[in-house]
Specification:
The structure is a single chain. The chain has about 575 residues and is of the alpha+beta class. It contains twelve helices and 28 strands. Helix 6 (about 355-365) crosses helix 11 (about 535-540) and helix 8 (about 430-445) packs parallel to helix 9. The longest helix has 14 residues, at about 430-445. The chain is flat. The two termini are about 30 Å apart.
Length: about 575
């Protein structure tokens, strides 16, 4: 499961042409930020400073807010003329407000909109400008490391070394931040180049002490916090001379020490291929026992480079569009839409599980598509006029223009389509996956991170064309594309779980592995009694990392790269 995309966004506010509520001077405006909890419930997040005597204020105080891609985060910016020292704004003149989502702001990066009064009328010629910046340090350290003449701790064969890197926390503990792969049976190992964020390695402090531990192992094991073995000691401060342990892994836990060293990022940064930075691995017990002891090997930093990597918001703020496509299952197993037992039956309030899933996911994604025109397709039905079975038909029955205007347009097209088709079968996913993949493939010709495609498939049953679907997904994993599958009803969805690569690498029928995990499956029944936002939170949580992984793998930059500024 990918890490949830949460980051800090800084909002800068300015206004122009505010209403003048003061006699003999100009308004003294302040901006308050409110966030919607649910319904009409709003809570105050923060306020700017008051700018005296100005109808065109540029507020210096920034709003800092957590950003979640998978949530619709509703915000309200209120402007008030402050003429007293009370905290309550009810006794201050209201100059106008603006409501939007955080997604709208970050996708625009700079958003200018007119202010309105409580009755919805324009607040004169007043306008507000909101600029978003991600608060981050997206510098990444690229390291190439090798060693030579390591001590051999094995009676049969040679050492199996690997490296561990640790940083020191504020309370003096050491926490592992990276482990290299194991090099089997080699006293002169060369590890694969690896990347680690500068913040993870040293809190972005170039002189923060780094503990690098080299161990010899026979298997890889997971460690989060380092517990020192008996007899080992840690320094009292990051700046003192410390020992950084190296071990020979033994299955019984009696690991043999090889050697250690301490360094800082400033020292590592001096390394180059023509002039590596080298460290002696010291085994303190051996040094005390052996008069002629020099070291237990040399670790050589062959290359160290700090680069800047784009984040998800870099791509969004840099002009990347998220293209949303919907595929709806119209197979006969859904039941007659006229029957209340059918999954396509529209309840008295006009909804069903299909529409709920469309609304939940679509309302989040629509903020990241400028024209908000979304293709919507059905599959598994007999369609007019000939009533031949189709596994890829536009809901509006217009093959040359399958686009719907916004999420509401998808809903309207679905409702209009439902009484015109005959539910049939089988349940084939591959045609619609391949359809979207063709557009994603065309987008790769642009050589920038300008477009990413998200396909939402809503289905009630088991896939019929499983082999073809696996192949389609493996091919799509090479493209700027993610697939979300929502299973409605009470069917057995084991095959869907198989397509979600969280538990292993998905392979095509010929054995080709997917280069990325791009499928997220959830059964709708898990969210029937949850808040309406819960479904989108679950199915969209992995999308930001999938977007970053694709564009970084192919070294594609946003059309307008904010990270380069």
């Amino acid at each position: 499961m990918a890490a949830q995309c949460v980051t800090k966004v800084e909002l800068t506010i300015s206004c122009t042409n505010l209403l003048d509520k003061d006699v003999g001077s100009k308004s003294d405006p302040l901006c308050v930020l409110l966030q919607n909890i649910s319904g009409q419930q709003w809570y105050e997040v923060d306020r700017t400073e008051r700018v005296k005597n100005s109808l065109n204020p540029k507020f210096t105080k920034k709003f800092l807010i957590d950003y979640y891609f998978e949530l619709v985060q509703k915000l309200k910016f209120g402007i008030f003329d402050i003429d007293n020292k009370t905290f309550d704004l009810n006794d201050d003149d209201f100059l106008g407000e603006f409501e939007c989502t955080l997604g709208q702001i970050v996708s625009s990066r700079t958003l200018t909109k007119p202010l309105v009064l409580k009755n919805g009328r324009p607040a004169g010629r007043g306008s507000i400008t909101i600029t978003a910046e991600e608060v981050k340090d997206n510098r990444v350290v690229v390291l190439e490391v090798e060693a030579r003449k390591l001590d051999n701790k094995d009676f049969f064969g040679k050492s199996d070394p690997y490296l561990e890197f640790h940083k020191q926390t504020g309370d003096g503990n050491w926490v592992m931040v990276h482990r290299t792969e194991v090099i089997k049976n080699n006293l002169n190992p060369v590890w694969r180049p690896f990347k680690i964020s500068l913040n993870s390695l040293c809190y972005s402090d170039m002189d923060k002490s780094i503990k690098s531990v080299k161990c010899e192992v026979s298997e890889v094991f997971h460690v989060e916090n380092v517990s020192l073995p008996s007899g080992a000691s840690m320094p009292s401060s990051a700046g003192s001379n410390i020992y950084v342990e190296c071990y020979d892994y033994d299955s019984d836990g009696s690991h043999d020490l090889i050697g250690s060293f301490q360094t800082t990022m400033s020292k590592l940064k001096e390394a180059s291929r023509s002039s590596p930075v080298e460290f002696e691995c010291i085994n303190e017990k051996k040094r005390q026992k052996k008069k002629n002891y020099k070291n237990s090997g040399i670790v050589s930093i062959k290359h160290c480079e700090i680069i800047v990597e784009c984040t998800f918001l870099d791509y969004i703020m840099g002009g990347c569009q998220l293209n949303f496509t919907v595929g709806i299952d119209f197979t006969g197993s859904n039941g007659d839409p006229r029957s209340p037992d059918s999954l396509h039956y529209l309840s008295p309030n006009g909804v069903n599980e299909y529409l709920t899933a469309i609304w939940s996911v679509g309302l989040v994604i629509q903020d990241y598509d400028t024209d908000k025109m979304f293709p919507a397709f059905g599959f598994g039905a007999q369609i007019p006029p000939s009533f031949q079975v189709s596994h890829e038909f536009p809901l509006n029955f217009n093959p040359s223009n399958p686009f719907c205007n916004g999420v509401q347009g998808i809903v309207d097209a679905y409702r209009a389509c439902l009484p015109q088709v005959r539910l049939y079968g089988p349940t084939n996913f591959s045609p619609i996956i391949n359809h979207v993949a063709r557009f994603a493939a065309a987008a790769t010709q642009q050589q920038t991170a300008s477009q990413y495609f998200i396909l939402l498939i809503i289905t009630d049953g088991v896939i019929t064309d499983l082999d073809q679907t696996r192949t389609a997904i493996v091919n799509a994993s090479k493209l700027p594309m993610s697939i979300i599958i929502v299973g409605v009803g009470g069917a057995d969805f084991d095959a869907m779980e198989f397509l979600d690569g969280d538990d292993g690498v998905l392979r095509s029928s010929s054995g080709e592995p997917a280069v990325r995990d791009i499928v997220q499956f959830v059964p709708f029944r898990k969210f029937q009694n949850s808040p309406k936002e819960a479904l989108a939170q679950c199915v969209l949580a992995e999308v930001p990392q999938q977007v970053v992984n694709y564009f970084s793998t192919y070294k594609l930059q946003p059309p307008k790269n904010p990270a380069a500024k």
